[in-house]
């Protein structure tokens, strides 16, 4: 019987998508001659399930679309075919936060904000967001896996990234609320929780034309309240400040001027504000904004862009970042970088990401930060995260390298349930300790920290299901070779891993993470040379090689770098031997000429007078 491909097609025959009626009738899609080959006739009752969809490959990948099923509508599919869009318009309120600051006259408001766990948001927001850089990374976001598909594998923003970059709580109660509020409910909520009049509330909602209030309106009505005001006014101002804060940061929407009033319900009891998992809600909201921005017709990107931009700086420091040398590890990692606008074109950044190597990624950027903020256990949670009506899947098994583990082929991503099943989602989240990846699911740790290792079969699988590069080779600037051959081959993954390990080792020494001494430096250079030479590299399958016989012991490779050797005389005491520096050679002066006593003594005064007189004549 001729071999069949995925979907029941015969190899060599033209492929076409079956219609709905054909699937319902379970019609056989390949043409055969029953008389010539009776065994080739498939009976309807043994056909494949009619609900299974058939997905064809896309130009430039993925070849197998069992995972990226909606890739036809993705911006990367349009770019490959020659269609492009302008860089995304960003919603960034970093400058607006400085228009409402909590000084000493508003210490009572600041104390409540500090207890809520959101105080760090007032200082770590970036005022500048790189439009080109964020647009280029948004083109690599895949909604089905909620990960960035890079040339060498998947990466994403994890709960560990949120906790380290923003210093906000990632554990606690899930942020849930009912259906979107009616305009009458919005007015009643403003009157009850902010103390406004019904007329002011109605006027504001009518101007916004949505269940929202303007950020400017909040600042104008509540920024003047100080500690000298009444207790009720301070409570109202505290709620207004928190609503303004999350509207400018965690839940920045595309209106760019307002914030949804539904979040005000979370600040009804100010003593319970710190019990919410704000980091998980922020991550779910950003996931949804990235998913929406992958559609070709979308022109704007919302969410907390400081989190996305700082994540790029942390994991690609040699390409995009500009560090702040005054940073200390006690502060949020978002303050480690100086945001700047990249003076390039979108296509140049896109092509730079297409050429990105695994050795250019910092897989574990928070090694120095662990003393202040250890890795939270909830970062290994595998399930759904939620922010109101937004539910997104969270897949740490797709990015094991970001946790220091060898990347394996992850299981098929799951589809999140509908938001109306909030009770089940909340119960699942409350028992998150039962849904973390086990030690068996995590696998083995990388042999070297930050090396970004993967199992040998991972890249072959990833190349089949992913769209590894975005820019078509025919449309690249000065690039004409085949797109898939321009990427690192599967056989080159071992050399890429060696280079990543060697660079990581040297980076730890140069950056000062290890002891600064000549011996440590030379030892690191020799060890890096051994890694690149493959002297301590295991096989591709990470199997332990058998030891060589004692009679045929393999000599260790000669170090490429040899430190200078100083030979000292034996010390006479316990004092350290002095460094003997040979004196410089003594210059020998030429012998002075011997004066003749019979020669006449020259008249230096007369010669000087003649010289001056002749010099004057030259001037005239």
List the main descriptive attributes of the protein structure presented here.
3-stranded antiparallel beta sheet; disordered C terminus
Task: Describe the structure in your own words.
With 620 residues, the chain is mainly α. It contains 20 helices and nine strands. A hairpin with a 2-residue loop joins strand 8 (383-387) and strand 9. Residues 1-16, 20-54, 478-494, 536-582 and 602-620 have low confidence and may be disordered.
How would you sum up this structure in a few lines?
With 620 residues, the protein is mainly alpha-helical. It has helices spanning 20-25, 75-80, 107-115, 121-124, 131-138, 159-166, 183-194, 198-208, 215-222, 231-248, 278-293, 305-315, 346-354, 422-430, 439-442, 458-465, 483-486, 493-510, 518-533, 604-619; strands spanning 89-90, 141-142, 147-150, 153-155, 212-214, 258-260, 300-301, 383-387, 390-394.
Break the fold down into its secondary structure elements and pairings.
Elements: H1 20-25, H2 75-80, E1 89-90, H3 107-115, H4 121-124, H5 131-138, E2 141-142, E3 147-150, E4 153-155, H6 159-166, H7 183-194, H8 198-208, E5 212-214, H9 215-222, H10 231-248, E6 258-260, H11 278-293, E7 300-301, H12 305-315, H13 346-354, E8 383-387, E9 390-394, H14 422-430, H15 439-442, H16 458-465, H17 483-486, H18 493-510, H19 518-533, H20 604-619
Parallel strand pairs: 1-7
Antiparallel strand pairs: 2-3, 3-4, 5-6, 8-9
Helix pairs in contact: 3-10, 5-13, 6-11, 7-8, 9-10, 18-19
